[in-house]
Amino acid sequence: MGNNPQEAIKKLKALMDQVDQAMKKSFQNVHQGFITETIDRFLKAREYDVAKAHKMLVDCLKWRVENEIDNVLRKPILPADVYRAVRDSQLVGLSGYSKEGLPVFAIGVGLSALDKATVNDYVQSHIQINEYRDRVILPSASKKYGRPITTCVKILDMTGLKLSALGHTKLLTILSTIDDLNYPERTTAYYIVNAPYVFSSCWKVIKPLLHERTRKKVQVLPGCGKDELLKIMDYTSLPHFCKRESSLSSRSSARQGGNNCYSLDHFFHQQLYNYIKQQSLINEPVEPIRKGSFQVNLQVPASKSKGAARTIETELRKYGNRLSDTLIELEIM
């Protein structure tokens, strides 16, 4: 355990003043003017150990510079039909805001196929949503509510969960690692809804094994979770799958366009799509952006790290490896 929080923040701020100009420029995209809150997130992820948090943040900035993450919102996924395929199979969207002003992201864990595009396409989409959240959504919410808003709420829908599917574990681990090392402590609470019985049974065993900080964030709600979620958000901010007493209609509702926050026709994805399109026209590169041109170096977490994803995967292997690709989602985005 390191220094007290305020002292640790002060020390890490001083260390960040010493990084090179390329990393300082990238750091501006990370903190968006909320330097103290950003420093605190990285410190919290490393138990306020200044040396470890400093290494984590510097490694993050190196990764951003080396992989041109600051330009990722200028790189649309092409061609358009590939982007639509990504959106149809990587189910995530912004459904609204909590009563405290936190963005509410919905993730269709059970119905996400993740088999309609390449790994690079899904990684690019994931990073773009992270960056759009951090550079556009959160700063806009902070301005609207007149205070720093640097975290979000996530609702994980287990509708359609395939208990025997393990084919996506590698991709989900990649996304989880990217988030764990570069976007720490962005989620205040995870709400799991429409969970099948076997998930609930396994969760009772896994929950005590998680780090206390992570464990406190996760709640498995009964049914679609509507009654509990209405305590923290208005009805209009509920994802479509929480507005129905039965989750059986969730798949058909995925075709309802604007009412479904996963859909490319939803306002969030329309805004994101148009934003990236407009950004791509600014200082347009000499050579056109080619499909498959976006790749990132995959990072390897510290060998001693025992995050939620790793703990969950290990324990679920004892249950016959039946749910690991789903539960790893708890550390994603």
UniProtKB/TrEMBL annotation:
Q: Which SUPFAM superfamilies match?
A: CRAL/TRIO domain (SSF52087), CRAL/TRIO N-terminal domain (SSF46938)
Record domain CRAL-TRIO: where: 79-250
User: By its UniProt entry, which Pfam families does this protein fall under?
Assistant: CRAL_TRIO, CRAL_TRIO_N
The residue stretches assigned to a coiled coil in this entry are none
Superkingdom as given in the UniProt entry: Eukaryota
PANTHER family in alphabetical order: CRAL-TRIO DOMAIN-CONTAINING PROTEIN, SEC14P-LIKE PHOSPHATIDYLINOSITOL TRANSFER FAMILY PROTEIN
Query: What is the protein name for this chain?
Result: CRAL-TRIO domain-containing protein
